[in-house]
Task: structure prediction
Amino acid sequence: MPEKPDKTSVALLPPDYHIHTPLCKHATGAPEEYRAAASAMRMAEMCFTDHGPDPSGYDLKHRMSLPQFPSYALMIRSIQDGHSPRVLLGIEADYYPGAEPFLRDWLPHQPFDLVLGSVHYINEWGFDSPDNLYVWDSVDVKGVWRQYFTLVAALVDLRLFDVITHFDLPKKFGHRIADRDLREMVRPLLDKVAAAGMAIEINTSGWRRAAAEAYPSPLILSLMREREIPITFGSDAHAPGDVGNQFEKAVALAREAGYSAYRRYCARQPSLCPL
Ligand code: ZN
Ligand code: FE
Ligand code: FE
Ligand code: ZN
Result:
């Protein structure tokens, strides 16, 4: 069924679909404060997407535990009062080889509006953590990018996620590869993303890092546009002041790449909204 434009929302800014809470142990501010920030920007909608649980103990220091999950859902539900901005319940779920059984059993049965899919680890290396930055000095950067995109391809193949977040995350600290290599790695992956009907987020947190540009780069965004891969917007807020960060710039970037619409989700059903 083709997605029809949804005319219910005439917001100045697109919704922020990537917001954390203190349950992940590295974010500050109550959900009410994130919501007040979105409200002050006259944002019509926002989605909390905190780092999801993993009962294997994977990266426990950056996420809620599984027993904490009901309190996360309740905390978000408690600010769904019908006033603007509308508040959605989402999750940022990590993919790594071995995560499949839990994700398959658990994710589809939760009352999410939106599921973001992320890759933060290559083998045992949390490559985007400042704590592990030194590891970059002893790796083949191009090889890391290749391994990373192989993991993202496996994430896509799982068909459990709605949106891929920070798509070119290995650039976070400034470790880049040639455009030629990037194109060669990304083209088949984007074909897969398009076939899966997934969206890719424009994540503005890259502008706050050494990468000094949003995820994904303008080059990748143009390759996405060629394949009509839908977009969402996310600040990756870990503090209330991050909500909607540099969204005007992100909208301009999307328009320059040829986008005239973005995707919304409700109960994991997508619709299109004019940009
Ligand atoms: Zn985080
Ligand atoms: Fe992330
Ligand atoms: Fe995040
Ligand atoms: Zn993130």
